[in-house]
Amino acid sequence: MIFGICMLNATYGILAQTSATANFTASATIIQPITITTTSDMNFANIDAKTGGQIILTPDNIRTSSGGVVLAGEENLSAATFIVTGQSGYTYDISLPEDIYTLSNGIENMVINNFTSSISNGNLIADESQIIRVGATLNVNANQTPGFYSTPAPLNVTVNYN
Questions:
Q1: Sorted alphabetically, which keywords does the UniProt record give (predicted)?
Q2: What is the per-residue pLDDT for 9?
């Protein structure tokens, strides 16, 4: 008997996946811009300078004095007041004036500083708007010349989303 050996030489191709594709969509949500609007300016009201001292006006419109200065009428007494509007549910920070500023009557000056706010940083906008009040300390010189004093330029309060 003759046996024959037959060898088959077969090359089998290995099929491998060389690429794949996935899909995605892009989206964006435009939120309400944050804004701040002044509704009343700061006014320390009437003061009798006498021997000088300090007037502290709180964000809650409470005015106290130290030293020899005397509080007179409260007509027009007001912390600076603002309305902040923005996206409900977002938080924001507030930046108050940090330096020393002057109130002037054209001849004499008084220093205003130590600004405070009725809110803290990281404050939440709950109903798309919120009221902020800002107070400060006014340093009155002894025998300050009577008259109307104001800042030569507006002071800035800034709000930013976190």
A1: Signal
A2: 54
- Residue 42, C-beta contacts closer than 8 angstroms, at least 6 positions apart: 57, 78, 79, 80, 134, 135, 136
Token pair listed for 14: 């290995």
The pLDDT tens digits of the residues spanning 123-159 come to: 889 888 899 999 999 999 999 999 999 999 999 999 9
Q: Is 52 left (phi over 0), alpha (psi -120 to 50) or beta?
A: left
Q: Burial letters for 72-100: b for 16+ Cβ neighbours within 10 Å, e otherwise?
A: eeeeebbbbbbebbbbeeeebebebbeee
User: How big, in percent rounded to 5, are the helix, strand and coil portions of the chain?
Assistant: 0, 40, 60
Indicate the residue type of 126. A
- Per the CB < 8 A criterion, the answer to whether 113 and 100 are in contact is yes
- List the one residue out of 59, 33, 37 whose CA is nearest residue 128: 33
